[in-house]
Amino acid sequence: MTLRTFQDGKEEGALRTIGEVSKALGIKPHVLRYWEQHFPMLKPLKRSGGRRYYRTSDIALLETIDRLVNQEGYTLKGAKTAIREGRADPPEAGAEDRGVFFTEAAKSTDAESDLLPKLKSIRDKLAKSLKD
Prior knowledge:
With 132 residues, the protein is mainly α. The chain has helices at residues 18-25, 29-38, 56-71, 76-84, 102-131, and strands at residues 16-17, 45-46, 52-54. The protein contains five helices and three strands, in the order E-H-H-E-E-H-H-H.
């Protein structure tokens, strides 16, 4: 599968709105927002008013999620695991040149999960010291 080519006059790496991405991929905007909740590695830029702007790597990830869920029959949980573990093929050979979102997203998710207990511990220690 190749990355979608947009016919809107913008440069190849330009940010796209949720409407543009929805139209190009044939996926309803509410589905894209729902997927953001289930795939922590999918993080479009959000500007004032909550308006979403998708990068090229976000769009490639959406294409992969769509392929896994709607063509290959994965559950959302299974698709998330496949992407995190690097078992999902990128939509295009060379997609890593535009931004490695499979392995880097998985690494950041793992780092975040390791960081959370440490942060909670620090918070608890600070709360305890404030009580003393």
